[in-house]
Write a structure and sequence with these properties.
Enolase-like, domain 1; 14 helices; alpha/beta; eight-stranded parallel barrel; TIM Barrel; four-stranded antiparallel beta sheet; 2 domains
């Protein structure tokens, strides 16, 4: 089997999404995805990765990943190139599963749980404007979510107060206003409903200590991205000052960036994103590394349906899963426009992946008739067929793109 074509799909009305189809000479097509900052990943996919992947056996996932990673490592790997590689790697697992007639999670070692715990990140899209609603009446939104089987939310009520002076301080009255949606949720649904607070690394540690202290009486489930991820020592100092578990960081990509964070015990909970950090196998490696230090892992999942499917397979398999993030405003709207993926939340959990081969997800046949779809294709023999290491490549200077 060999890769004959790498195809990307982007959408004017869904500008955060980059879907990937990896075609083979046996007719099997693998689906992958990355999201956010799409133009850079699109360029990396077709300009750097496709020429060295075409012509190779897609089932050699580890070899292709390592060679691609070594190639992009020369010029800074942890950005557009790694996001593009994540999308391709997900597609390669889809191909492998389809070729063997088995779902990806079984290839990873099978399921360790019978359902997957999840919370709702309150982003808005289409008819589900959860972002606006938690600003106006977070308690009313929480009541509705609970009726739909969703038992937790993530909101970011303090972000806007960082704009006054680039997050260098926060006033008492700003903290009080930031607490309003938290109080509204607690008054509406009580103490059992989980509340996560996203901070998007907007403040310094001094301000974050004040925010954490003010949040502690409200039984906060976790607080996320408290400071910029490279500031590991500052984050660790903050984690030692608060009873609220700290989560981080999806902005650290691959095991090499996450290694020091985990080893230094910067936070009580680790987070990573399958569609950013290198794909399915790299996420499993990160989870195993965190498990060795006794740390649970959150799967950051704020992308599209293929990324969601990939997260399901990893979530089914890794022993130290804390939560898998979901976004109601996405899976209730455009997921169904693009794919046949059906997401149902029952009693705070989503189901394991189906036993369909690969990722268990297909694109809708009418996708190509959308008036906003843009398709780009790379095909041909490829420039690195059979090349196993960067050492092999020095005799072929044309593949070092």
């Amino acid at each position: 089997m060999k890769i004959t074509k790498i195809e990307s799909l982007t959408f004017d009305r869904l500008p955060r999404l980059l879907l990937v189809r990896v075609h083979t000479d046996e007719g099997i097509i693998g689906l992958g995805e990355t999201y956010d900052k799409v133009p850079g990943s699109l360029g990396a996919l077709h300009g750097t990765l496709a020429p060295i992947l075409l012509g190779n056996d897609p089932r050699d996932i580890e070899r292709l990943w390592n060679f691609s990673f070594d190639t992009i490592l020369y010029h800074g790997f942890a950005g557009a190139e790694l996001r593009a590689l994540s999308a391709v790697e997900i597609a390669l697992w889809d191909i492998l599963g389809k070729s063997l007639g088995t779902p990806v999670y079984r290839l990873l070692g099978g399921a360790v749980r019978d359902r997957i715990s999840t919370y709702n990140t309150c982003i808005g899209h289409g008819a589900y404007n959860d972002f606006e609603r938690w600003h106006k009446d977070a308690g009313d939104l929480a009541l509705e979510l609970r009726e739909q089987g969703i038992h937790g939310v993530k909101i970011w009520p303090f972000d806007k107060y960082s704009e006054r002076n680039l997050g260098q301080s926060i006033f008492s009255e700003e903290i009080e206003r930031g607490l309003e949606p938290v109080r509204s949720i607690r008054n509406a649904v009580g103490n059992d409903f989980r509340i996560g607070i996203e901070c998007h690394f907007r403040f310094n540690r001094a301000a974050m200590e004040q925010i954490c202290y003010a949040l502690e009486p409200y039984n906060i489930y976790f607080i996320e991205e408290v400071l910029r991820a490279p500031n590991i020592e500052e984050i660790k100092r903050l984690s030692e000052k608060t009873r609220i578990p700290i989560v981080g960081s999806e902005t650290l990509l691959s095991r090499w960036q996450m290694r020091d964070w985990i080893a230094s015990a910067a936070s009580q909970i680790v987070m990573t994103d399958v569609a950013w950090t290198g794909g399915i196998a790299e996420t499993k490696r990160l989870a195993s590394m965190a498990e060795a230090f006794g740390l649970p892992l959150v799967l950051h999942n704020a992308g599209g349906p293929i990324s969601h499917a990939a997260n399901l397979h990893v979530a089914a398999n890794i022993p130290n899963l804390f939560e898998m993030e979901t976004v109601r405003a996405f899976y209730r709207t455009y997921f169904g426009e693009l794919t046949d993926l059906d997401v149902q939340i029952v009693d705070g959990h989503t189901a394991l992946p189906t036993d369909r081969p690969g990722l268990g997800i297909d694109l809708n046949p009418d996708l190509w008739q959308r008036d906003d779809v843009r398709i780009q294709i790379s095909e041909g023999e490829g420039k690195a067929v059979g090349v196993r290491t960067m050492g092999d490549s020095w005799s072929k200077p044309d593949i070092r793109l």
